[in-house]
């Protein structure tokens, strides 16, 4: 059977998940920020070595390579995107279609105000051309923006969601004036190609961000695909999208990749929770750089039609994750009042935490974990990277302990306690925004992963009563594992307010919806063919998105057309349970068509249970600081890989794996489920 490869490039590490005929291997290498194709190649090489084959032999026999990258996130965070120009309709240069000047401010960190100009045209809110496009005006404005150094021009005109004819005309004019046989044609990116959302401000934000990161994504992803092909891979490189699916590079818009790694983690968490009996799950990915939180309810991912990226609401539907700078590499500093602050800055992969011995001069959470005895300096990444404990001690003493007037051990423990409390606070706040109170967690599984997830899980779930607390045997490569559960997916939307039930009668104009769906189906079938698959092999299904009164709740229908009142009643019944009290109407704000082609998946299969005795995995003892009062205590150390379903490790104990460490305090046990996942239980 052929190989499957999933790779996720994060800010600190690049993770790989490789499978062949049910056999799996994981790989973890340092991310190379200067050139992400290097760490991609390193990860592929490491995966091939795990199977004892050459890179060429593995890739020649690989059925699919799924890939996610932080290029878009890093470009936005670091503000290193392309210099772009923006054309808007006359009268909207300052407002960018927003009613609030304060709301507009964040966009100017991506595009300078003098790189925005207006074109003289008008289309009304019915799509009728009121004022034709002035071609000479367009040429003049294009010349101005290119003279100002624009590498690409974004066009976002008022009412282009209804009629994009002027946007398309502008693209044709610019292409004619800037042909590719010169030094290179000017790239033109249209807001109407990004979204048909009626809010022009959201549409403009999405178009600007897409234009800002477009160059770096195009250069990098095509190069990555070329490198794979040079090593005998014959299929398209499949890119992770923020909606939870994958698509080839040529069918990927830059903004589609935003936060695709964390999104894949949520997909993996949904599967892990499901096989353990839970359709509701919260995912907590504690990586090297950040904490990413996601939610699954009734087996459905939590989506937003207008997610926020860097304080900008955008009209690109995405699976929602909440990210904050609380990871293993998060830098520790002191507040003005003498308290501990964790993050949001991170040491990243280069130079990394001080204990990496690569020049890091700041104290991090990982340094504290080394000082406390959680992490064995000689067994980091299975011993492939040797950590310098003396450097960790020195930096915590200099940066934290001496300034607080405490011992190094007390300072390290305070760092650990602070990050655990921060993560718990973020989890609870996130869940409360979704209407889930701290006292109602018993039907919710928490899935903790990321390199630092199992290390800090016992701390950040302290006092919380989740239905089950789960960790994964591939915790630190979990997002790469999550990709092994994803399919090729294209999503299409039609934003239109339709009242399905007005309090008396049900919606009966079925053709209004069916016509919109037919138009989307035509595009979907064309795109699936462009992916190299038969359109008849795809599964097509609808999602109706409730309005604000329904909290943008999504209802799925496997039908692609409406034909009876019974079908409308069934849809309304699904919306009824989330409808706010006192609201008689059921109104949708958008129709989405999903076109899915099933891809090969890695399956989680149960195995036989053995006895609880874990002694075959015992590897000795180590001094671990469980509290400053008790001091260091001799603590049993277990190895994760030999533990099998049915085994139970009772705390206090440390379980070390080749890519993470599980910290089990005295009041907890760690049970291996029939699916080989760890279940953290109270004793």
Core attributes:
9-stranded mixed β-sheet, 6-stranded mixed β-sheet, 683 residues, 16 helices, alpha+beta, 35 strands
Folded structure, characterized:
- The protein is an alpha+beta fold and 683 residues long.
- The chain is 30% helix and 27% strand.
- It has 16 helices and 35 strands.
- The strands form nine sheets. Strands 13, 14, 15, 20, 23, 24, 31, 34 and 35 form a nine-stranded mixed β-sheet that branches. The protein has a six-stranded mixed β-sheet with strand order 3-2-1-4-11-12, sandwiched between helices. The chain has a four-stranded parallel β-sheet with strand order 6-5-9-10, with helices on both faces.
- It is globular and about 80 Å long.
- The mean pLDDT is 91.
Number of strand elements: 35
Write down the overall geometry: globular
Instruction: Tell me the Rg in angstroms.
Output: 26 Å
Describe the sheet with the most strands.
9 strands, mixed
- Strand percent estimate: 25-35%
Euclidean distance between termini CA atoms: 43 Å
Task: Average the pLDDT over all residues and give the rounded result.
Answer: 91
What is the topology?
Elements lengths: L2 E7 L3 E8 L2 E8 L5 H16 L3 H6 L1 E7 L2 H8 L5 E6 L11 H4 L11 E4 L2 E2 L5 E3 L3 H13 L4 E5 L8 H13 L9 E4 H4 L5 H31 L6 E4 L5 E3 L11 H16 L5 E6 L4 E7 L2 E2 L1 E2 L3 E2 L2 E2 L4 E2 L1 E4 L5 E5 L5 E7 L18 H8 L16 H16 L3 H26 L11 E5 L3 H8 L7 E4 L6 H6 L4 E14 L8 H21 L8 E8 L7 E4 L7 H12 L9 E12 L20 E8 L6 E8 L8 E3 L2 E4 L4 E4 L3 E5 L5 E5 L1
Parallel strand pairs: 1-4, 4-11, 5-6, 5-9, 9-10, 13-23, 23-24, 30-32
Antiparallel strand pairs: 1-2, 2-3, 7-8, 11-12, 13-14, 14-15, 14-20, 16-19, 17-18, 21-22, 24-35, 25-28, 26-27, 26-28, 29-30, 31-34, 32-33, 34-35
Helix pairs in contact: 1-8, 3-8, 5-6, 10-11, 10-12, 11-12, 12-13
């Amino acid at each position: 059977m052929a190989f499957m490869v999933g790779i996720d490039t994060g800010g600190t590490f690049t993770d790989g998940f490789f499978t062949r005929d049910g056999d799996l291997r994981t790989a973890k290498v340092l991310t190379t920020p200067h050139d992400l194709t290097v760490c991609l190649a390193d990860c592929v090489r490491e995966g091939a070595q795990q199977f004892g084959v050459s890179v060429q032999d593995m890739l020649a026999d690989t059925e699919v390579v799924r890939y996610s990258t932080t290029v878009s996130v890093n470009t936005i965070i670091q503000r290193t995107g392309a210099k772009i120009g923006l054309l808007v309709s006359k009268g909207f240069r300052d407002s960018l279609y927003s009613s609030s000047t304060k709301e507009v401010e964040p966009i100017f960190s991506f595009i300078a105000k003098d790189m925005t100009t207006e074109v003289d045209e008008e289309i009304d809110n019915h799509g009728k051309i009121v004022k034709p496009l002035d071609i000479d005006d367009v040429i003049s404005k294009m010349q101005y923006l290119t003279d100002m150094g624009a590498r690409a021009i974004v066009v976002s005109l008022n009412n282009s969601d209804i009629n994009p004819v002027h946007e398309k005309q502008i693209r044709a004019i610019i292409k004619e004036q800037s042909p590719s046989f010169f030094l290179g044609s000017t790239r033109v990116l249209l807001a109407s190609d990004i979204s048909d959302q009626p809010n022009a401000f959201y549409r403009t934000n999405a178009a600007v961000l897409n234009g800002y990161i477009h160059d770096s994504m195009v250069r990098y992803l095509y190069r990555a695909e070329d490198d794979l092909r040079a090593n005998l891979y014959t299929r398209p490189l499949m890119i992770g999208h923020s909606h939870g699916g994958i698509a080839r590079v040529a069918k990927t818009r830059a903004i589609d990749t935003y936060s695709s790694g964390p999104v894949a983690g949520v997909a993996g968490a949904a599967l892990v929770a499901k096989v353990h009996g839970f359709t509701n799950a919260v995912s907590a990915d504690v990586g090297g750089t950040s904490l990413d939180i996601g939610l699954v309810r009734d087996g459905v991912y939590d989506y937003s039609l207008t997610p926020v990226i860097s304080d900008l609401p955008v009209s690109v539907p995405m699976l929602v994750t909440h990210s904050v700078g609380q990871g293993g590499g998060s830098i520790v500093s002191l507040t003005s009042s003498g308290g501990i602050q964790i993050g949001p800055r991170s040491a990243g992969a280069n130079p990394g935490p001080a204990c990496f011995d690569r020049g890091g001069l700041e104290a991090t959470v990982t340094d504290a974990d080394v000082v406390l005895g959680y992490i064995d300096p000689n067994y980091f990444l299975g011993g492939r990277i040797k950590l310098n404990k003396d450097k960790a001690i020195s930096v915590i003493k200099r940066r934290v302990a001496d300034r607080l007037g405490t011992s190094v051990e007390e300072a390290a423990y305070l760092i650990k306690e602070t990050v655990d409390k921060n993560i718990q606070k973020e989890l609870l706040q996130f869940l409360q925004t979704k209407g889930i109170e701290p006292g109602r967690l018993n039907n919710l599984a928490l899935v903790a992963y990321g390199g630092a997830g199992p290390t800090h899980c016992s701390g950040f779930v302290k006092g919380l009563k989740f239905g089950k607390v789960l960790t994964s045997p591939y915790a630190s490569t979990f997002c790469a594992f999550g990709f092994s559960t994803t399919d090729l997916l294209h999503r299409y939307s039609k934003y239109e307010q339709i009242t399905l039930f007005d309090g008396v009668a049900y919606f009966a104009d079925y053709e209004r919806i069916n016509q919109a769906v037919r138009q989307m189906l035509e595009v979907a079938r064309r795109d699936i063919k462009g992916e190299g698959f038969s359109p008849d092999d795809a599964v097509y299904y609808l999602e109706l998105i409730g309005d604000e009164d329904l909290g943008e709740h999504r209802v799925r229908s496997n039908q692609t057309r409406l034909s009876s009142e019974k079908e409308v009643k069934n849809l309304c019944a699904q919306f009824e349970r989330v409808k706010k009290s006192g609201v008689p109407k059921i109104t949708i704000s958008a129709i989405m068509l999903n076109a899915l082609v099933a891809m090969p998946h890695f399956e989680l299969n149960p195995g036989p249970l053995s006895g609880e005795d874990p002694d075959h995995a015992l590897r000795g003892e180590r001094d671990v600081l469980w509290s400053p009062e008790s001091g260091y205590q001799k603590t049993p150390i277990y190895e994760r890989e030999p533990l099998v379903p049915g085994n139970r490790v009772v705390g206090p104990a440390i379980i070390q794996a080749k890519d993470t460490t599980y910290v089990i305090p005295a009041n907890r046990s760690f049970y291996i489920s029939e699916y080989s996942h760890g279940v953290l239980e109270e004793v």
